[in-house]
Amino acid sequence: MKSISELTDFYYKKLHPVLEELDKNRERVKKRVITIGIIYTLIAALLFFSLLDYMNIEFIVFSLVGYVALGGILYRFLISDYRDEFKEKVIRPLIEEIDSSFHYIPDLHVDVEYFNRSYLFPSPDRYSGNDLVKGKIDGVDLTFSDLHAEKEHRDSKGRRSYSTIFKGLFIISDFHKNFKGKTVVLPDTAQSTFGDLIGSFLQANNFSRSGDLVKMDSPEFEKEFVVYGSDQIEARYILTHTLMEKILHYRKHSGHPVYVSFRGRNIYMAIEYNKDLFEPSIFNSLLEYKIAMEYIKTLHLSIGIVEELKLNQKIWSKHG
Question: Which residues pair with 212 in a beta bridge?
């Protein structure tokens, strides 16, 4: 697999003519977005203040939400061509540079069936995503995409709203071992928020989780994660010291909350972000080093999971 420095060289040396042309297009799109955004805001403000005397507080809130929602739709429409061109001319070549066998499908995402099968999060009521990548690294199947899973809520008047269950990168990989039970590794928010005593109590009485709390004998791992499993012996068998160290390293390397589960023959990983990872920003130049590195590091992190956890060594195959 190509290193980050090799991918950075590719980005600037091989893609540079494309990037320069695309960045000129970005400037044109940015000016159009700003101009139309100002006109849209002025029209909305004019309508709002002309009708203000006839509005109650609920309608004011509804109008503000509508303004933001319609503005978001308008923004996505205005940048759609640039977005598609960016993905085809920048993201696709980067993925193919890492491994030419990978298939990149910008408008698809990991199926909700796999999301539910991971047991990492509750079943969503609204589910979306994009930037699906599928392929093999050294014979190990790997699939990942951006996802946004949400839960629906209704107030006393039946009005719907949604809260985010998970937003970020979702990865599925073959683990070369057929597990009988379910083992789930989650960020340890209870102990870090409420301390050891109350945090441990909350973890042991987490009724939203099936399976039992599994205590691991690594203080560093226990500080970062909490483990639930339907089979205590199997959970400890899976989470060897080596694997716990690798998951800890992956958490540190990603810099974001990491969720891991083992079920069937697969390992599922979810890395929480608060944005779409492979979406271009029209307000930042594609020629900026920091922007380029974000795309490269995220792709390297996603595909590097196989090497990071040494899944390509089939470490479990000799046991089962």
Answer: 229
State the CB neighbour count (10 A cutoff) for residue 247.
21
Burial of 237 (0-12, 13-18, 19+ CB in 10 A): middle
Decide: helix, strand or coil at residue 158.
coil
Element (H, E) at 140: strand 140-154
| Nearest residue to 104 via CA among 88, 116, 84, 120 | 88
Give the tokens for residue 253.
């390397």
The DSSP annotation for 215-284 comes to --S-HHHHHHEEEEES-HHHHHHHS-HHHHHHHHHHHHHH-S-EEEEEEEEEEEEEEE-SS-TTPPPTTS
Angle at 114 between CA 111 and CA 117, to 5 degrees: 150
Backbone angles phi, psi at 229, to 5 degrees: -150, 150
* C-alpha closest to that of 218 among 175, 261, 247: 247
Tell me the HSE value of 223 on the side-chain side, using a 13 A CA sphere.
Answer: 6
State which amino acid sits at residue 14. K
Inter-residue contact 268 to 170 (CB < 8 Å): yes
What is the DSSP secondary structure assignment for residue 312, as one 8-state letter?
G
CB 184 within 8 A of CB 120: yes
pLDDT by residue for the chain (320 residues), tens only, comes to 778 888 888 888 888 888 889 999 999 999 999 999 999 999 999 988 888 777 788 888 888 888 999 999 999 999 999 999 999 998 899 888 888 888 999 999 999 999 999 999 999 999 999 999 999 887 888 999 999 999 999 888 788 889 999 999 999 998 777 888 899 999 987 666 656 656 666 666 665 666 788 988 888 998 899 999 988 899 998 888 888 988 898 888 888 999 999 999 899 999 998 878 888 888 888 888 777 788 888 888 888 887 777 776 655 554 44
C-beta atoms surrounding 77 within 10 Å: 10
Tokens 């695309």 belong to which residue?
22
